Amino acid sequence: MKLYSFGPGANSLKPLLALYEKELEFESVFLNPAKFEHHSDWYKKLNPNGQVPALEHNGKIVTESTVICEYLEDEFPDQNPLRPADNFERAQMRIWTKWVDEYFCWCVSTIGWHRMVGNMVKPLSDEEFEAMVDKVPIHEQKVKWRRAREGFPQDLLDEEMRKIGHSVKKLEARLKESKWLACDQYTLADICNFAIANGMQHGFPEFVNEKDTPAILDWLGRINDRPAAKKMFANQPSEFNRKKD
After folding, report:
1. What residue stretches are annotated with the GST N-terminal domain (predicted)?
2. Is the N or C terminus of the chain more exposed, i.e. has fewer CB atoms within 10 Å?
3. CA–CA distance, 140 with 65 (Å, rounded to integer)
């Protein structure tokens, strides 16, 4: 089993943490986003969308981060389960994973692109940039790369920040009621939302802080303190601490 991913953050973190929580043996293949390795021809043969993460298992490729997590549960249901046995609680888990995929992830991602990702391509010449964009398989991603290079419109950034504020309030309200998001059990709902929320107290302190979101900070701390999370962060290479080749 191989997992192709960036470092342990955002969508790549979801299956990484699930694999560590389930204590499954796998080979980690790190793709460096600064070198656009996920747009390379060899990788697009594995995932034609040129996106990470992707799981290779028994000669087959599974893509989409949350789908990979569900696949691991289907293949290894008795190995440290991350899905509730109760069908109603499982449905609640999927409501939270659907929400993070369709709403929470996107607003945080846009701000991340604005603040960090665009800086990877701003130093490129127009010719170098167009050559890079030409390798991006998905039209919408090409548009996003161009926006990141040029700068996102302020009205769009303002709306995404509003959505982030709404998302934080939603998480805080739930975590004031329950130790974990879906039910009394730590599940994929927590892993998938943690992947996006972890570190927001540093990146978005106006929203996530001790005064306004004590329940979120407690939840983030408990997940970061889990042995699987500690092992993942210690073992997995990251684009932020990887030495330049």
Report:
1. 1-80
2. C
3. 19
